[in-house]
Amino acid sequence: MNSTNKMSLTHRILISMVAGIAMGVLLQTFAADSQFVQDYIINGLFNIVGTVFVSSLRMLVVPLVFVSLVCGVASMQDTARLGRLGGKTVALYLATTAIAISIAMAVALLIKPGAGMELVSDAEFVANEAPSLAQVIIDMFPTNPIASMASGNMLQIIVFALLFGLSIAIAGEPGQRIASMFEDFNVVIMKLVTLLMNIAPYGVFALLSKLFYEIGFDAIYSLFGYFMVVLAVLIIQAAVVYPVLLKLLSGLNPLIFVKKMREAFVFAFSTASSNATIPVTLETATHKLGVRNSTASFTVPLGATINMDGTSIMQGVATIFIATVYGFDLSAGQLLTVILTATLASVGTAGVPGVGLITLAMVLTQVGLPVEGIALIIGVDRLLDMVRTAVNITGDSMVTVAVAKSEGDLNIATYNDPEAGLKDEEVHLPHGESTKARVGGSQLA
């Protein structure tokens, strides 16, 4: 027990990630045809543990976002700051998305993945129609906030939480009593996040073991050029672009930021869901990076909904790849159209299921490329989606830190402290003896 506690949660999660990948590859290599392995280990044990872990994270998203955001807005002394905070956040999210897709297209044009290849796919892709901008704005405002929470509609939850928090802030003494109750709720929910994070190594191991057992490496081989270009640009965005932007915007040491993001990065990689990773991203931003909850509770959920840097990178490379395979030469005007469409669509299609492929279909349609070309890349999309998600939440956190620094909402000492947040990861459950001692003490008193 003590030896386990000496190892940090981050290290345990990283070890579980490596062990899970190794286990999946070994089982796929030596037991691919074993019915026992498929039925009882992959679709049995690993499937149960991994699904329960992801479901537990998703269970926390709605109450955590709602309560944290209500607490943050209610605590704001200057309500005008909310508009300033929102403006900075959305502008930075759009800027990082535009940078991401620009780099992706530049690298893809230089390397030209798909050149000389004649790929044929039996799969079909039918693009769903993207909603109009007017409909997106209308849909941001819930008619039934309880239904919005039940369905996990993040934009509607954010809007209702903002309005509810503002109402608490201007309600005087009754608002103060409600705010105090929400603060208590927030503390309890963050403890629940900590509790679930401590079972994360088992969930990460199960998820990655199952994925790497099932993954089709043949698809990766046939799309190796496309796969490696997308992966390379994702790494550039996370390891170069974000640190440089953080240094330019805040003057903070980017190496500290990258180191403290490891845990959230692994969570995102394992779950392939920005929304499911919100509890971990929010915990990392507040406890390890030192961002005040009033800022992080707004920027992190918003980023998980509209910030799609990783997805934009995929779209940029996929557009060039599909154009190359089908023999289309894109003009400079068409390339600019791709950048603008993908950047604006990241906000315009926020909260829509399958948003990445819908946006890619929009981009291809705008420049006259065949939408059915998307079927060519679906085979490797699952693995790339894991890396894209990790890049997305890293961008969310970078923008959160930069905005917090500009607003004076960043604790510099916490940011620079390498031990920050480690104690918050510990779980101390009450034991029977200590409970009896407290009861006995109260009886004697």
Could you describe the 3D structure shown?
There is one protein chain. The chain contains 21 helices and no strands. By secondary structure, the protein is mostly helical. The protein has one domain: Sodium:dicarboxylate symporter (Proton glutamate symport protein, Orthogonal Bundle). The longest helix is centred in the N-terminal third of the chain and has 40 residues, at 35-74.
Mean of the pLDDT scores?
83
Strand content: under 5%
CATH architecture: Orthogonal Bundle
Rg value? 23 Å
CATH domain fold name: Proton glutamate symport protein
Give the key terms.
445 residues; mainly alpha; Proton glutamate symport protein; disordered N terminus
Helices, strands, pairings?
Elements: H1 2-6, H2 9-30, H3 35-74, H4 80-111, H5 133-139, H6 145-151, H7 154-169, H8 173-197, H9 200-214, H10 217-222, H11 224-250, H12 254-260, H13 262-271, H14 278-288, H15 293-306, H16 309-325, H17 332-348, H18 355-366, H19 378-407, H20 412-416, H21 432-444
